[in-house]
Every structure is written in C-alpha cells, then in structure tokens.
C-alpha cells in the first residue's frame, strides 16, 4: 500500500523550513576529564609501576605516618604481639634450660618463678614489657640469662613505644587536619572591578585561631603543545594576585576575596565567556600558613574547572556590623549575584575600550530604571494606603448642620433655616 502524499509541499514542511533557517555555530562540549586537584584538596594522581619499592623502607617513620589509620593500627598490633611472643619464647627457653619446669626441682631456686609452661611465659613477657607486674611471676638474682633477657625486652619495648607514640602524635597533628577549617567558595567568578576584568575567589577560616603569614598562590594547569610538537600534559602557569603584589602575606581575620587582574601576562587574557566554557583549563588555589596554636605549617588546596567559573557574577557581602561587633554570615559564603560584564576577552577590552564603557552605561541605566520603578511602586503603595485612611477618616469629619432662627412678626415663633 502506497503512502498518502501530503497536501503541503515538502519545501514548506517543517523539515524544509528548518533546513533553510540560519543555524548558529555549535561549540563542541568539552570532554569530561579528570581534575588534578579535587575540591577537598586531595591530589588526583595515581603512581604506577614503581620498581624501587625499597626507597619507602629507608624512611620507615614517614611511611608509617603516611599510611591510613587501619594499616597503622594493624602494624602496631602485629609488632607488639610479635615482640611478646618472641620474648615469651626466650623466657620459656631460659626456664627450660635452667630446669625450672622440672616437677622434681620445685623447692630449688628458679630463674623465673611460676613459669611452668609457654602460656605462663607469654604472660610474664607481657608483664615485663608493659610494666604491669602483678607480683606472681618474677626473676631472681641467681640467673644471669634471665637478667639479660629482661634488659633486652625493656629496651625493645621502649623503642616500640617511642615509635608508636611519635607516629600517633604526627598523624593526629598533621597539617591537613587544620586545613579542614579553611574553606573556599564553591565557584569562582569573573567580573569587572576597578574597570578591569578580574578573576575572583573567596577564602575563609572557620576557627578563631589565626593563620600566621597566610599566602595564596594561583596556578593554571592545562595541556599545551610546544612549537616543536612536544605535548606537556600538566603545564603549570603561575597567576599573580593583588594580595601578592601589595604585601607578602594575608591577614585572614575575616573571609577575603582574592582577585587576579586579567592582564597581558595572564593565561586567561585571550579567553571570552564562550571560549572559557569550552576550554580544558583548571585553576588551582593553594593557601599556606602557620597554625598559631601549634606552629605547624598547613596547606589547603582546591581547584576550579571551567564549569565552576561563573562569568558576570560577583560575591555578595557577608560581613556586617551589628551592635559594635563585626558579624560574618557563612550561609552566604558562596552566594553570587549577576552583574553586567562584557562577554568578550580581556584582550578585546584593551583593544576596544568603548565596549566596557557601553556596558557600564547600560548597567547604570538599568540600575536607574529599577530605582525609578521601585520608587514609583512605593509611592503608589503609600498613596493607596493614604487614600484608604482618608476614606476611613472622612466619616468622622462630616460638617455639622447649622441652624439659623428668624423672629416672626408676633415674636412668638421661630423658623429654623439650615
């Protein structure tokens, strides 16, 4: 059966009309790639095919500190139990060699009293190493081998305790623990500040203890290809900030906005709003400083990919003065507001300054129009409220009737005239 032919010609149908419409240029979406620094600051890097594994054993203490807690606890438990078993075997051999386990020699002097089996030797080993000393088992002065084993076990136990305590202290006082209270804004913004296009982020510290000598470094990481054809997968470009130019460190008393002016030396100089969304760059932020309470240097890191950079936005203020005290509202820490910003690159703004002037003029006109509308709405609302109050009060302001009396000819009656 043949298909029924349409009455409308094909060139006037929806497919024909759609084919003749002018198409906008389609930008290819950026391929999702792994970021080098996660939002929590961890490095997204996997080490593979390391052949010289013995280098990690040359620095055992750092290896133990870098391990996860579950592996550290397993290693320490295994070390303690192994040392107890090893010296338990030593005590059992000493008692066996001296004949302390012979039932016929119960009344004679022993090296270690009440050590009659391997279990009792194991319990005595634990008592010696952890210095519990229940009093039931003890060594005597008649056996030199027992005194030697006692000295060796005490030395080994002190070494194990020192390593364990030092490792636990270093793991609990690591610098990344303090970095948990150093926060960054979820998004970065690009807007006009002081007539220059700027890249801005917000940083803050949740604790009252200060970070001494805080510094912020910005780096742009992208994949580049040299003119010789060499591919550099992680090309790091330092980005200068206003705080680094003005002084050497930050006074991180309240949340601060770190600003980077996009100038000729900036890697963002040639990127427009559309090109930024299609680029594969990643901006890494590193905050370093010394913890005031412990004196340990700490470092907090985060990164922003192109999807996390908002063009034409600005951070809302969060610091207010309330009853003589400055208050910080962290619920608005990452909130932004949209502002008028040219969508072209910073290079184009430098070559065509009138674009920025026109944008600022449009922004001023829109601001004035919004103020006029707001004032007119307030005026209308006040007039409506005032009219209603007048109507309610008019009922009480009705003038009273006035009566005029005129005498008659006889003078005995009066006519009321209103």
Automatic annotation (TrEMBL):
Keyword NADP recorded: no
GO CC term (a single one): monoatomic ion channel complex
Topology term for the membrane: Multi-pass membrane protein
Limits of the Inward rectifier potassium channel C-terminal domain: 182-352
Catalysed reactions listed for this entry: K(+)(in) = K(+)(out)
First-listed, main subcellular location of the protein, grouped into a coarse class: membrane
Endpoints of the signal sequence: none
Organism: Poecilia mexicana
Domain Potassium channel inwardly rectifying transmembrane: 37-174
Keyword Hydrolase: no
Protein name: Potassium inwardly rectifying channel subfamily J member 8
Region feature (Disordered): 365-418
Keywords from the UniProt entry: Ion channel, Ion transport, Membrane, Phosphoprotein, Potassium, Potassium transport, Transmembrane, Transmembrane helix, Transport, Voltage-gated channel
Subcellular location: Membrane
UniProt cross-references to Gene3D superfamilies, sorted A to Z: 1.10.287.70, G protein-activated inward rectifier potassium channel 1
Site entry (Role in the control of polyamine-mediated channel gating and in the blocking by intracellular magnesium), positions: 161
Record-level Gene Ontology MF annotations: ATP-activated inward rectifier potassium channel activity
Pfam families, alphabetized: IRK, IRK_C
Chain segments annotated as transmembrane: 71-94, 144-169
Biological-process GO terms, alphabetical: nervous system development; potassium ion import across plasma membrane; regulation of monoatomic ion transmembrane transport
Entry's family note: Belongs to the inward rectifier-type potassium channel (TC 1.A.2.1) family.
Polar residues composition bias: residue spans: 405-418
């Amino acid at each position: 059966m043949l298909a029924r032919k349409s009455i409308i010609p094909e060139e006037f149908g929806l497919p024909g009309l759609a084919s003749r419409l002018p198409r906008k240029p389609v930008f290819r979406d950026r391929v999702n790639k792994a970021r080098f620094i996660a939002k929590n600051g961890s490095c997204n890097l996997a080490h593979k095919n390391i052949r010289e594994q013995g280098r990690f054993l040359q620095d055992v203490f750092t290896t133990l500190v870098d391990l996860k807690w579950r592996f550290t606890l397993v290693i320490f438990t295994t070390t303690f139990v192994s040392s107890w078993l090893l010296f338990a075997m030593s005590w059992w051999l000493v008692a066996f060699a001296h004949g302390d386990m012979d039932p016929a020699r119960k009344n004679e002097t022993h090296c270690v009293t009440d050590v009659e089996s391997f279990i009792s030797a194991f319990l005595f080993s634990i008592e010696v190493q952890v210095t519990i000393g229940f009093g039931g088992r003890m060594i005597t002065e008649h056996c030199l081998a027992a005194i030697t084993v006692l000295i060796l076990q005490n030395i080994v136990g002190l070494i194990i305790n020192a390593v364990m305590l030092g490792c636990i202290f270093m793991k609990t006082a690591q610098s990344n623990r303090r970095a948990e209270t150093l926060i960054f804004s979820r998004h970065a913004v690009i807007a006009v500040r002081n007539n220059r296009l700027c890249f801005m982020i917000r940083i803050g510290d949740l604790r009252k203890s200060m970070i001494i000598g805080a510094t912020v470094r910005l780096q742009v990481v992208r994949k580049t290809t040299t003119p010789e054809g060499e591919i550099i997968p992680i090309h790091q470009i330092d980005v200068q900030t206003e705080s680094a130019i003005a002084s050497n460190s930050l006074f991180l008393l309240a949340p601060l906005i770190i600003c980077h002016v996009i100038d000729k030396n900036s890697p963002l100089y040639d990127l427009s709003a559309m090109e930024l969304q299609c680029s594969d760059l990643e901006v890494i932020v590193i905050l370093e400083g010394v913890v005031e309470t412990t004196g340990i240097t700490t470092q907090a890191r985060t990164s922003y990919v192109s999807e996390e950079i908002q063009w034409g936005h600005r951070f809302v203020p969060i610091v207010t003065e309330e009853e003589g005290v400055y208050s910080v509202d962290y619920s608005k820490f990452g909130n932004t507001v949209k502002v008028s910003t040219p969508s072209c690159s910073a290079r184009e703004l430098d070559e065509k300054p009138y674009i920025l002037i026109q944008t600022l003029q449009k922004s001023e006109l829109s601001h004035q129009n919004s103020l006029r509308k707001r004032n007119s709405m307030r005026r209308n609302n006040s007039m409506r409220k005032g009219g209603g109050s007048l109507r309610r009060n008019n009922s009480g302001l009705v003038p009273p009737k006035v009566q005029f009396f005129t005498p008659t000819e006889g003078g005995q009656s009066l006519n009321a005239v209103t």
